[in-house]
Amino acid sequence: MRITAVAGGVGGSRFLRGLLAAAPRAQVTVIGNVGDDITLHGLRVCPDLDTVMYALGGGIHEGQGWGRADETFAVAAELAEYGVGPDWFTLGDRDIATHLVRTQMLDAGYPLSAVTEALCARWKPGVRLLPATDDRAETHVILADDDGKRRAVHFQEYWVRLHAPQAESIVFVGAEKAQPAPGVLDAIAEADVVLFPPSNPVVSIGAVLAVPGIREALESSAAPVVGLSPIIGSAPVRGMADKVLAAVGVSETSAAAVAEYYGPSLLDGWLVDEADAQQAARVEAAGIRCRAVPLLMRDADATAAMARAALDLAAELKR
Ligand code: GDP
Ligand code: CA
């Protein structure tokens, strides 16, 4: 079975671990979000790609869900002594090695997809990890100050430094001119199943969909597209999905509202948490097959059961 999944960072990678446990013989391709990418201290940092790579490759800080295990921060401490910022984004020493390799290869002319493949040769994540695009397409958030003045900040600054205040809109800078990375469209066209993990629908999966050609390929894919809700009850399980959903005009924070936001042209099936079972009828009325199952990634078993439920729904949709 060929499974193609679109993924962000922490939520996406946790789900992917469950997927590999649920379908150990499947060939899994992950289309990773690059909207979070940022250049810091001259180093190209790809937080979501690295979270997937470390999590599936056994290098992740388990408690945190991102960053390296056994990390140290000597470089960050030295930078602070120089007074060199940004002081709101701390790079760990082990992590810096990844960014050094990446930056060096990018500077030598290799595209991000080739660099990611090279980094994965060490980590062996058990999936083929493809950046959505080799082009630069970073997510920026437009904020309106009290006096009505607008400013744009990089998504990392919005989330890590400003802790996700109310946002006016989201811009995927450069995305309109970006092209899907090699292999992305084929991975969609050749998939037996396409999955949307419970990743952020706007700044993770939405940033991937903003690359021209990817949404269209998903809409016309023969394979069923099944997603899992990142919202349980009236709040994201973690993070700021409610804030960025509001910024794209989705004022209601619910599993059904996210399904409607993706829409029936994109989604064939949608899993909501058991607590949201009453929303299933509304999702089905929108033309999306819906099931209610436990959606908390409490541990490896619970996460594998979620992946199994998504694959079961996909199989049902194929018949
Ligand atoms: P990020 O790039 O690190 O923010 O990670 P993702 O975009 O891949 O995933 C973030 C989303 O995962 C958030 O919107 C969370 O609500 C969602 N999430 C995190 N843990 C869980 C969980 O246990 N269950 C569900 N259903 N969603 C979760
Ligand atoms: Ca992310």
Describe the model.
The relative contact order is 0.15. A 7-stranded parallel beta sheet has the order 5-2-1-9-10-13-14, with helices on both faces. A 3-stranded antiparallel beta sheet has the order 7-6-8. It has a single domain (2-134, 176-318), classed as 3-Layer(aba) Sandwich (Rossmann fold). Helix 1 runs parallel beside helix 2 (47-57). The two termini are 16 Å apart. The model has no long low-confidence stretch (mean pLDDT 97). The protein contains 13 helices and 14 strands. The chain has 319 residues and is α/β, with parallel strands linked by helices. The site of calcium ion has 7 residues, from helix 2. This is 2-phospho-L-lactate transferase. It is an enzyme of class 2 (transferase). Keywords: Magnesium, Transferase.
Give the structure's gist in a few sentences.
The chain has one domain: Rossmann fold (3-Layer(aba) Sandwich). It is built from 13 helices and 14 strands.
Classify the secondary structure makeup into a structural class.
alpha/beta
Number of strands: 14
Shape: globular
**How is the CATH topology named?**
Rossmann fold
- CATH level-four homologous superfamily name: CofD-like domains
Key descriptive features of the protein:
319 residues, alpha/beta, Rossmann fold, 7-stranded parallel sheet, 3-stranded antiparallel sheet, 19% strand, binds guanosine-5'-diphosphate, 2-phospho-L-lactate transferase, transferase, CofD, FbiA/CofD
